[in-house]
Structures
1.
Amino acid sequence: MGNFVVSLDFELIWGVIDLPMLEGYKGNVRGVQQAIPRLLELADRYGIKLTFGVVGFLLFKNRKELEPYLPELRPSYLKPNISPYTYMKNTDVDNECHFAPDLVAMIKQHPQHELATHTFCHYYCMEAGQTIEEFEADLKCALKIAQEKGIDLKSLIFPRNQCKAEYLKICKGLGFTSYRGNETNMLHSENYENVPEILKRMLRLIDTYLPITGSNSSTVEEMESDVIANIRASRFFRPYSNTLRIIEPLKMRRILKEMTKAAKKGNTYHLWWHPHNVGINQEENFAQIESIFRHYKRLNEEYGFESKTMNELANELKGNG
Ligand SMILES: [Zn+2]
């Protein structure tokens, strides 16, 4: 029977500190305060289990509380502007855009969902300069604060989906069971490495509305691994766009069709986004999320399509192997 996985990269502002849109994103980030409770409520209504990959920094109340927990070994990126440690030196780190212990506590009150990690500092594994030891130090900090908050971290979502084979062994050694790998389709394939990034981005945007990569979902074989399970992404839920509103129904049709196909084939369909993506245009975004969840419910009744967290699915795969 097929599985439905929904994962959220919960990071507030930490994922965009190096990007020019930082200021413009603050509205999105502020909207997360309402978006998380709305999402939890909808998930309850339709029996959906969510996996939240949380940036470790978010578990603290403020900068003062965070500082004693910072690792000694920090990512030595060649580009200093991508490091949150450099950013913190030069920025007024306000609580609203950088910390969310109450929202994490709220998620924890719904034990059907999984609290996973998105690393401690939103760590980039493929960036030049950083080392595997620095990565391990980062994950250990994430585990430490999680443990203090009574959270058992089992799954990992790599920031910008940057993942390296040898880093997965570190994850396994620290007790992780799963991570979210890239989609398997051609737009994420290494064979297309030489295609310019801007062209790939454009094609991915078109693929949101038109099936240029076909129908995405994963088989058991595509998720199993000797290291930790690869609960592969099937699709990024692109938030509602006012500019593209005429073709929004195409996006929805594409997602619902892919879900139906996965349910019929017994595959896993893994949808992901960031809570701040739906922090604006909330009425439109939540109407779309609700129709996805409603469709899941139908597929659950008709085909036994089942909502699972990443760790639950990883444990099942282990059982199969
Ligand atoms: Zn991220």
Note: Strands lie at 3-10, 50-54, 114-117, 155-156, 178-179, 229-230, 235-236, 268-273, 306-307.
2.
Amino acid sequence: MTPEDLGLTARDCRYLRLLRDSESGLSPTEIAREFRVRLPTAISALKRLEGMGLVEYRRGEGVTLTPEGLSVSEELLWRHRVIESFLCEELGIDSETACEAATRLEMLLPRDSLVRLCERMGHPRVCPHGRPIPHPEVVP
Ligand SMILES: [Zn+2]
Ligand SMILES: [Zn+2]
């Protein structure tokens, strides 16, 4: 399943990237705090992702990604961070602005264009925030 097939919104993508970045499960309260939203707002967003089979919630473990959620999140991290890298390194845009722009663009740009962009940039290893970039687009 691709992010397009799933019809992910920008909000879905933000939640999935946060969960992918965290070492362990996060509680809905921690997630709400991170996004500065009320708890019921975070819970409804998480329920939507749970309904898509992308996340699961277990008492004590918090919210974690399912295997499907993990692979979709890898794809999103790649898209987001490649766009960020391009905006920062090639256009000199600051990392905060680049992150906001990447959040809007990650689902809009055709995948083929991102594959070419990543190749052109030599498959950058880290984003402007120093976080690792996976390369799920490279078939081994
Ligand atoms: Zn790449
Ligand atoms: Zn980044």
Note: The longest strand covers residues 55-58.
